[in-house]
Amino acid sequence: GRRNVKVEERKRDDENNNITNKNVVAGRDEEIELVIPPVFDKCTSVLEAEKQIEAQDLYWEAVCEYGKIGLDEAEKLLLKSIQRNPFVGEPHVVLGQLYLGKGRYEEAEKAAEKGLILLPEWGSPW
Q1: In which ranges do the TPR repeats occur (predicted)?
Q2: Distance from C-alpha of 98 to C-alpha of 111, rounded to nearest angstrom
Q3: Which of 12, 15, 31, 124 is the most exposed place for a label (fewest CB within 10 A)?
């Protein structure tokens, strides 16, 4: 049927473009270790919707209102956000930037590193 025609066309295209399967190793995929995502303590924790919403609201207040509330208050809001939802990277990264601006370099490095570890665990921004 139609599927066989497509398969044959693909084989022909691969041959014409000198594509081979010489790098395929038999049994290779069977030895791939399945990795449990580190999000939510490797799927052993649950984040309540209420805490997620609170954390997100605190984060956005810190980011959007720091000019009005000041950096000290923004820091408190970011720390509260992280306390309510420690699984996302954005609050950590912003906290690192805040610490950097205050000359608190060791704290900045730790916060930024934590955030950069967490960021790729999600498929989308928070």
Answers
A1: 89-122
A2: 10
A3: 124
